[in-house]
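This part of the workshop introduces the protein records we will be handling. A record pairs a protein's sequence with a compact description of its fold. As an example, a complete record with its sequence and its structure tokens follows.

_____
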Amino acid sequence: MDTIQSYIKANKDRFINELVELLKIPSISADSNYKNEVLKTAQAVKLSLERAGCEHVEICETDGHPIVYGEKIIHSDLPTVLVYGHYDVQPPDPLNLWHSPPFEPVIQTTNKHPEGAIFARGASDDKGQMFMHVKAMELMTSTNQLPCNVKFMIEGEEEVGSSNLSIFVKNHREKLKNDVILISDTGMIANDTPSITTGLRGLSYVEVEVTGPNRDLHSGLYGGAVANPINILSKMIASMHDENNHITIPGFYDKVEELSDMERAEMAKAPFNLENYKKALNIDAVHGEAGYSTHERTSIRPTLDVNGIWGGYTGEGAKTVIPSKAYAKISMRLVPHQNWEEITQLFTAYFERIAPEGVTVKVSPHHGGQGYVTPIDHIGYQAASKAYTDTFGKTPIPQRSGGSIPIVSLFEKELKSKTILMGFGLDSDAIHSPNEHFGIFNFLKGIETIPLFFKYFTQFYKE
């Protein structure tokens, strides 16, 4: 521990400056206009892995954005840890809500981050957390503390569904062979309450289109006589929840895992203050499925949410039209045992069935993935728990997350290994939102904790 802390103290400013430089590159995978910036980021990640001590690093081309692969193999008798992360980021829109430009990182203190936080797109999701592993690797190789083999797989399409990663994994099973997978793309309860994510929700993401007349119409001449696609779409979406906020799609809950009262009681032990939660979001009431707590609604229950809706005229001033088309993007967060492809089919059939006469509808699936649960008796979880205990002075709480990392279930299917989710972000980091940030404390604490995971996992593996 002394060596780890001394190395971090001596290199703290350089670590932060290197992350700031990485955050300046707008690696927006969803926008083709940033293709060169995404490639530039991949090259920067490759260079950082080489400097960290990886003996072999390459940029692997895909049909989309490239994957950066690196490794350092010490001995075949030792276990291998595969580190996964992503270097692509979400679009920064809406830009007017940022307090500082999203790709011009600034460090500011906050109530939760008295030591400062880096404000920039990708600071927490996932450049900052991915870069912790790069710097932890540098620390271990520079101080001769790397106890096992390590492989890195850092992709550039996580924010758009990782479709090419699945192909890469299936085609390179031997290259990616490992004993455990380590990911930092999640969070923890608080800086004084460490936790380890043991479950992720799955995801089904679709786009819907409702078409009425063959062109936009004058709302005075045609209003009241022709179906308005925006009105129709709004009613269809509203009908997908009942008065208890229960999703009305037939068959949607058929495979939902119901946790026991004992399991729910264990979940309830995690610190949570409802009034602080509402205050942080500036809302006067929470909302969700009847019969479940706020934490349960965001972790062990499935959801259906509209992520975007548009149609007609949305520019400045007035334009009186009945639009020809209306659109919406809809995401469904799923729990273990719900199959995302099956849920997509159920949604499509239901959406088509509830469409009234006078309009036609189209459902276009985007991407999805399965939910995932890591058993807490796995040596990877036990190694992570011991590492957190050493650096935070507290045993971490296992908790399920409301987020989705679709490739985790793919890893288990194709690589036959469990994934450990060692997140160091906070719910308040504003990932996917304006003013995303990542605490300096969290960044450095991750670099301090990760080498201990390697140490304890190797020990447990040998026992």
